[in-house]
Every structure is written in C-alpha cells, then in structure tokens.
C-alpha cells in the first residue's frame, strides 16, 4: 500500500460506468483511483468495479469495507475468487476509493459478508464467463467445452489451457454477460477453507499503513484537548510566548476544544499541555454515573416504551407461585481502539484530501464537505459568495487500515476537527488524539440499568417475563428477541437523557441485554432447581439454531463432567446480527478475582466462509467481552470521565487470556457475520460460573467479588 | 534543540530535536519509521516496544538524550524481507487482526527469545503481557512464540 502523494491528486477517480440489469451493482468499464489504475493496464481487464485482472494474471479485488481486523480484505476477495475460479496465490486486494460506483461505504452490524455474499460472487462469476468466452473464441470451440479452473481455462476435449493473464485483452473487448451462473454450494473450492490472510504480511513488517502513519509531504501534526466536562465550551486560552516555542505553527480554537499544530506530534502535545486554557464548563457539572443510577431507579417504575408484548402478564399473575426479580447495572464503555482517533486533512482552494481510518468513508466525505463549507468569521470569501465552496466531488477520501474500529470509527467527530484545523493551515494536518483524549471523549457504549421479573407456576414452568431497560438511548436488541418460549412477556425501554456522547460499541445493545437475560436465566434455573442447560434447551423448542449451538458448546465443553476442584462452568447463548453463538466458560476464583481458564464457543453463522477467521473473531470477541466483564468501565463524576488511560481503563492482558476453542455448526444457510456475535454471551457465561461458585450473581459489571458485585 | 546521533537499525542518523523528546516520536516523526506505534504514551500498552541493545523497551518512555550510543532496532530493522523467524511464525499462526499492536508484540517476542533459550508457557505469558492487544490475538501470539522457538532452531 503506497500512500498517495500530492502528485496523485490531479488523477481523480475516474469511472466509466453503466449499470447492467442482471448483475446488480456490477459496472462495466474500468476504474482507477488516486493510487493509480487498477484493473485495466495496457492489456488489463476489469469487467466490474470489484475486480481487475492484469496481463500476468494477478487479480486485484476492490474491498469497499473497512479492514479493522475482522478479515474483510481476505474474506471478500474469497467470494470473488471462488466464482472466478482463481488461484488464491494470484489474488490481491485494494481498498476501494470513495466514488459513486461503490455506493455508501459503511462497515458495521457484522454485515460485510452478508451483504456482499451474492454481489461479489456474481462479480466473480461474470468475469469467469467472459474469460471462458474469450478462450472459446480464441480456440473456435463451443463454449460448453471450456471449463475454468484455478486461474486458467481448460478446453476439456483437448486439455489445452489458457491462463487468465493471456485472455484479459480479449475478454475486455467482450460484452458483459447477464446472469452468469453461480456455483452450487457443493462446488465451492475456496469458500469453506482457511486461507492465509492477505493483509498479514504487511502487518508483521510494519509496512501496513494506519491513519497515523500517513505523512503527505509537508504535513504538520496537531494535538487536541477537549473541554473535560461534557457540554462545556472553550472560553479562552492565554496565547503567550511560552506556548509558542520552537516547532509550534498554529494554535486553533474550536468550539469545545483547542488544537496546537506543530512540526511533530510530541511538540504539539507538549505545547498544548503547557497552554493555560479556561473552559466554560456548561450545564452538566453535577452529572455523574451516580446521579444517573439514582434517576434510573426512580424511572424504572414507569412502564416505558413497549418493545414486545405477548400474552397477559396481569392475567397470569394469579397462577404464579414463585416470583423472581433482579436489577442489573452495566456501565458506559469506551472502545479503546489501539490506534487512537486520528485523521489527516488537507483543505486546498479547490479540493480536500482526507486520509482516515474510518468505518464510514462516505460519511467522512460528507462531514468534510459540511465542515469545510461551514462559515466562520475568518472565511469571508465563503460568506460573500453565499454558495457552497466544496462539493462531494472535490473531496478525495483515502481510507487507510484501521487500528481497531469496534464501532468507534463510525463517528465523524475527529474528521470534522481535522478539517476545521486544516482550514487554518496551508498544509496537510495530521490530527492525533492522545490516549487521554481518546478515553475521555469517546462515543461510548450506553450505560444501562435493568429491572427484570419472572414468574414460575406450580408446575415449575416459566410463565411470565418482564424486562425494563433504562438509560441514555438504550435499545432492546437482545431483549425483545428473547428466544425462550415464555407465554407472557413484556419488554420495554425507558430513555434517560445524559450529557455523555454515545456511539456504536461492538454488538450494540446486545452486549448489555444478553448479559441481563442470560444471567437471569441462571437465576431462574437455580430457583427452579433445574440445570441451566436443560432448562434452556426445553425453552428453546421454537429456536432450533439457538438450541443447536448450545448443545454443541455444552458437548464440546463436557457440560456436567467433573471439573478441577474450585472450578465451575457457566454457559450462555445469544443470537445477534443473524448469527448464533453459545459459549461455555470454565472459571475459578483466584485472589478474590474470577479467573477464566477456558471458553468453548459454538457458532452458527450459516456457511463458513473461512473457518479460521471465524475462530479468530471468537477469540477476539471473548477478549473484548471479558475485558468489559472483568476490568474496564467508564464512570462520570462532575460531568467528566474519571478514567484517562490504560492504567485505569484496563484491558485484558496476555496472562489473563483463557484457552478459546471454536466449533462450527454446519449448515447450508447463506452466511452471516462474526465480528460481533461472539461478544454478547461471554460476560454472562463467566458470571453464571461465578454464580455457581459463590451463590451470588454479579449484577453489576465489571464483576467485583469482594463487594457483592459492585464496582468501586 | 540540539543534534543527536542515533544508532537505529544499524545506521547512525543525525536528529535535531529537543532532548526530552521520547524515542517513539524521534522514530516516527523525525525518522519516518512508522512501523512503531503510539498507544498510550505512559508505558502501559507496549505497542511502541523496540529493542535497545537487544532488550525490549517502551520507546514512549525513553527521552532522546538518554539513548546515547545504544543500538536501537525497530520492526523495520529485524529483517530485509519480512522473513525473520518470528515474523514467519506470526504469518504461520495467522496472528494479526487489525495489526496495530503487532510490531510491539513481535519486538517483545524477539527480546524474549534473545534473553531466554527456551521459555516455558508461564514465561511466555508473563513477558508477552507487556503488550496489549485489543483484538485479542493473545492465544495466537502464544502459539507463534512457541513456533518461533522451533524456527530459530533453539535447543528444547
């Protein structure tokens, strides 16, 4: 991956496109981006915007999803390569440019495989058909005598072969076929195999380029400090000589922040730290997570907004002989991507360049346009003209590798800031947030408080379930879709305003609702003197995919078999984003802390595109979820976040990693994603094991054993 | 601001900078070697780990004026072609996800194998705990360190 230089800017994305009816988004013609032409070189071939083949047979697949570790730069090319009958060693990837040909580029909701499953296979199949036709014409033989295999076309009767590279010139001149046949699943030769990831060689040499590695010629570095109190603003700073020491180029006031621009990041940050800044703290100085919890306790008496209702909770109340209730509280969470927020922006007279690790490149473009067109007192030319100076087509977005995403890089706040700063400087500016800014000004996973009640009748049957979720912008995903057969059920949400910026956190509301529902299931099992596995399986009669993953995980774990002294197993099952995951955790208590020894995952995500990447995402989700279960939280006091860096926003470390094993449920359903679905069940699986060991359910996260489940 | 001679990856570079500037920023912003990453600036995450005379150090904590004539090695300096045995082991075990921390992980692993002939699982786990990975690649890192030992032909 080369970083484009200024020289590339004149070669703007160019596309000759025509929508073909049968092939969905497959576009005819050829394309190039600011990093140079891909697809059609002198004798190249690019039957759609999704791939190009050069005369050496090298296949480059355009990836229009963000690579943030989940492996899309391998799994999406696999879909093309499968139908193209490519040889995997010939396949490369390139991150797609932001042009209309690729539509809205947005990565999230574990959707990359799901939404590209047919589209990219069709792109591959279309190209394969054109290569077959080219070979048939070249040999003057009937098309049906030509077969594609591993990067070449074979004439079946004579065993003659032509490599794709030899056919591209001819293929490029052919009309694009409609409705190229897609393979039967039984014909797959790449899909279903664990292939080496295409992005890994550059990630072991330091060559992979993340956002903060971009250095356009003449680029300056910016450090930023935001008002520490949410809702506060910049009042003033003292711009004295001390702040303006060597290397400092500019100090930029933003509405809620100050940025220092210097030759290097450290100089910028040092100058910023020395700046005396006065903040206007605003109206939320009394806000804290403690005040939020007090308000939630009151508000949970409200009915809330009903998200699901079945049966009649009042009518069944008379037959309930045993009633259970519990309250759970889950904290705000930060994303803490290892690469802090960053964005490089150049705002020229006529064009804007943005280099950014982002999950939403098109939204980044739109943000850049909006911010660049914003009127300020200084930008008199813009005010006078009264027209928008920059349009979408004036912006080039260069998406880089993402040093973690987890939903954080769906927000555009740092893009807006970079553009605002770059407007004030006649050079590209690299804005890099310090870790402290990253922890204290994230777009957090929402805090939530839950009141949950269940009724059991005299036969021991679970007959009623009421779950209220209260908190800022809480959602009911993972709660209203409770898979268990309960005849009377009500799920509702109660929104509580809070001045904390919120965003998408890996698996969204599933992360808290799965914890509450799956922990409560174990509380019900305990009260009904049932085995947690048996009880779930009985209640999952209408949810066969939940049932299958749970049975598989339990079997592979050896549920019910003897564990070492002081160890216990806990399990949980949850469906999110179309996939199903069950996890069983083996836990003991060491030094009054939960130690997780082993996690067995069972996954049903339909057809397994790349089994090793599914396993990798399970390992990743377990670590992400365990961090939130055992260690990390964000608390707010006096309107400001109390944590600042990795010493107090603590992540799971290597020596806390359990052994994670992943088992796949085999079926022939179209594939769904795996980036998020492993996160929701893990905290509950661990908590249920702790419950089994101690008799006390941790009803607050992170799990804290010595204070009855309360964190400090 | 003065000029320092810094020995990095086998070459001596003249760096004009404030002596308090941490080695991390000298490497990244002054020398343009961007394989070494910033993660926390306070020595907590280890993604900035480089070798100093063969030992793993957190480059965000070492100021330029304390480097002297020490030999610094970054991820760019461990092999010409990306096939140092540890890098090969990282590929074989398909370790990286987002990849951001992996330069630090690899440098930490090389330092471990420099100092220990055949580390056991406990030592691998303890030493590698110096570097955080938010993607959760720890299990694969452990396997890759063990494979590195084999590839380096160390006696078992």
Tell me the name of the CATH homologous superfamily of the largest domain in chain B. Beta-grasp domain
CATH topology type of the largest domain in chain A:
Aldehyde Oxidoreductase, domain 4
Q: What is the strand arrangement across the widest sheet of chain A?
A: 13-14-11-21-18-19-20
What does the oligomeric state look like here? heterodimer
Rg estimate of chain B, integer Å? 15 Å
Find the count of extended strands of chain A (DSSP E, 2+ residues): 30
**Radius of gyration of chain A over all CA atoms, rounded:** 28 Å
The appropriate CATH architecture of the largest domain in chain B is: Roll
> Beta-strand percentage of chain A?
15-25%
Short description:
Helix content of chain A is 27%, strand content 25%. Chain A has 712 residues and is of the alpha+beta class. Chain B is built from five helices and five strands, in the order ββαβββαααα.
Walk me through what this model shows:
The complex is a heterodimer of chains A (712) and B (156). The model of chain A is unreliable at 1-43, 379-383 and 708-712 (pLDDT under 50). Chain A has 3 domains: 6-203, 2-Layer Sandwich (Aldehyde Oxidoreductase, domain 4), CATH 3.30.365.10; 211-282 and 341-432, 2-Layer Sandwich (Aldehyde Oxidoreductase, domain 4); 289-333 and 444-694, Aldehyde Oxidoreductase, domain 4 (2-Layer Sandwich). Chain A has 712 residues and is α+β, with helices and mostly antiparallel strands. Chain B has 156 residues and is α+β, with helices and mostly antiparallel strands. Chain B has 2 domains: 2-76, Beta-grasp domain (Ubiquitin-like (UB roll)), CATH 3.10.20.30; 85-151, Orthogonal Bundle (DNA polymerase, domain 1), CATH 1.10.150.120. Helices cover 33% and strands 16% of the residues of chain B. Chains A and B meet through α4, α5 and α15 of A and α1, α2, α3, α4 and α5 of B.
